[in-house]
What does this fold into?
Amino acid sequence: MPLNWKTGGLLLGLVFFAAVLLVKPIGVSTQFVILDGIIGDAVNSDLVTKVEEGWSSTNAYLAKSGGKYAKSVANPWNYSFLFVLAMALGGFLSARLRGGLDKAERTMPALWRTNFGDSQVKRYIAAFAGGFIVLYGARLAGGCTSGHMMSGMMQTALSGYIFAAGAFAAAIPVSLMLFKQEA
Amino acid sequence: MTHILLAIVLGLAFGVVLDRVGASNPSYIGKMLNLTNLNLAKSILLAIGVGSVLMFAGQRLGLVDVGHMSVKAAYVGVFIGGLMLGAGWALSGFCPGTGVVAAGAGRRDALFFVAGGLLGAAAYMVTYPAWKASGLLDPVGGGKVTLGAVPGATYDGLMALPGDVVGIVLGLGFIALAFALPERIMGQPGLAQPAE
It folds into this structure.
């Protein structure tokens, strides 16, 4: 069972505050681009190259804003990338500390099973397709739930409010259509 | 070196807390988005409020560096991208951060989400020039703006109001909203809620 919402919300707020106090606001989705860049550069070493003023790329997105993404691809052990790797470790430790997930949950969440049955293939296709749309959308928007919605609205950024409006305007109707049975 | 250590400590803390509030479990995301269990929404609202009040109050007291703020640009693509993210979030039950945490927690479907995410991000990298040319990435409403002008920040304010005060007031508003939000809006309140 998750934490009581008051305890959980307070802890979550403290983490967002600690991040902006000590370093900078939390963000995640850029690191999917950085990992893509690392993989791409391993396959084709011409993707990211050293230039006079720093780093650049044959990919226009990696090269934008003075090559800041290209630079992170070239130096993956940077703050933002390690932060996201540490998040996965945090998930691992937390799940262990609360006794691990049972076998059924490891393949699919209960709410999905109640509404769409036991097919793993179906769930994995949905998760893959969802991941594709989520990250395409997050990169188009310039951030995700962490960076735009939480860090953004916390800083009173106009963009955070625009993003949250779009995200919930789609998420609530889609969820109401998909998940009619309660788990 | 300090930054490396901070990345690990803060990332770990964020991962653990996301898992403990239930955000890494797509069932809780689904129940929030189909409005049958809003406890996670209450946690998120409270977190935004607490973060906002502490940050802006800390700035006023001189304890928090205003330069640590990082405000993203507003443009039409933010809304379109938000719609896309929302649809995929509802379908999969994961967003980028919680997908990573859930993969760490041992959810196999989250690995498929992350793989799909890497492909989606790559697709955006390839199609970025078309978006750029469309003008949908051009700033609207002033681009990188906050609702009020934050003293000492490089960002403009959308309104001629003191941005730190706006942040504290809105933060308190988010906290109040967290308490005011009902636990559920849709469905029968008497229905059993079995544990994960």
